[in-house]
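Honest question from a wet-lab person: if I give you the sequences of every part of a complex, can you actually get the arrangement of the whole thing, not just the pieces? Trying it with mine:
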Amino acid sequence: MTVGRRRGAELEEAILRAAAEELRASGYAGMTMDKVARRAGTNKNAIYRRWPQRAALGVAAYKYVADARTPTVDTGSLRGDALELLRQANATWSSPHGAVLRDLLAAAADEPALLELLREQAGGGALSAAWFTLLGRAVARGEAPPEAVQPRVAALPMTVLRGEYALRGVPAVPDEVLVEIVDEIYLPLIRGRGLPCPKPQPAG
Amino acid sequence: MTVGRRRGAELEEAILRAAAEELRASGYAGMTMDKVARRAGTNKNAIYRRWPQRAALGVAAYKYVADARTPTVDTGSLRGDALELLRQANATWSSPHGAVLRDLLAAAADEPALLELLREQAGGGALSAAWFTLLGRAVARGEAPPEAVQPRVAALPMTVLRGEYALRGVPAVPDEVLVEIVDEIYLPLIRGRGLPCPKPQPAG
DNA sequence: CCTGATACGGTACGCCCAGTACCTTGAGGA
DNA sequence: TCCTCAAGGTACTGGGCGTACCGTATCAGG
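Yes, you can. This is the full assembly:
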């Protein structure tokens, strides 16, 4: 009746796919080991043989669907680039895919090892690199002072966007907020860093 | 043996105290209803008669210990005020008290009602008000341009600090980072917003 | 083709915890 | 005093994580 007993990579694929589907359908909280096993047409043993804990499976399932595409933009202006990158990030986090990631982050609060992995995905590596190159290009064009190229400054819009997520309940920040972040915060900050700027109150 | 059967407010106090102690001892995940009941010298019924769910008890216990002190600072300069407020926030979030709050936030990801309450505590109301008055004073002193008085701008240092928490595993951000946030981001931003600033590249 | 080793499948556990039901017992008010 | 209501005690359902055990299919090697 069955097409034979699956083993190794094939079974692993099936489990990951099932876990990913469960994540999408019920969120991380609803991703039960039994349900994953049933959906994958196997049982919990096969899962626990590969991942020691539910959280580990969750992370694996997330990485399975997360195509680690490095965001790239080049609109020709700092403003355009920043806005585009923000929009991409906003779209990503607003998708069900982003919801899963947020659930996972919340649920893994007591699993240091998993937090590490997730943190990377959530905006550690590739993303901050994108902001760096973006700023670098702006400097080359003379749009930004070299002093502005600095980790905390470069990726500030993403930080503010995350803050916006924290304030509102759920993502999907309206586009005008993204524009505001760029025009009222990022660009003025870059400008402000360009000034040798005598303090307005040179007291002291 | 016992001092008699406790009722009403007295019992409620005891439960809240016990729940708070459990939170401190084992985090939210370890705050079991049975354990709270046992520690309070009562049983789960008395708890469920007052709070319908575990999460509700968690929030109540948190609010029980959280003395909602409104932070106030006035060092005489924008830089000093901002730094002081950041230091206070950092101290708060680094304390076990802050750890409980973070646990709670993570655990309540699927309880919209609780999220609301927590969000308020986490920096919604009183805190952003403090940043507003701080900036207002700076404007009055001529240290900052009036255009800078804007929600997202005013509380930006807190947003960046939260971002720092997200990147590192656990709070307790070193003091020099707080200084950097103020000197490299907040102050330059305020400065930059003061300029009518012709765009460096007026293309278009 | 036969024989192991390995891993899959099935099932049944143990444990813990949330939340509920039911009854007994004490305390305070009328 | 008696009555009511809440507190205490205990047991139970339901469900989820993680484990154990055992039969069985697949694969590798001779």
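Two things worth pointing out. The CA atoms of residues 71 and 127 of chain B lie 7 Å apart. The longest helix of chain B spans residues 112-140.
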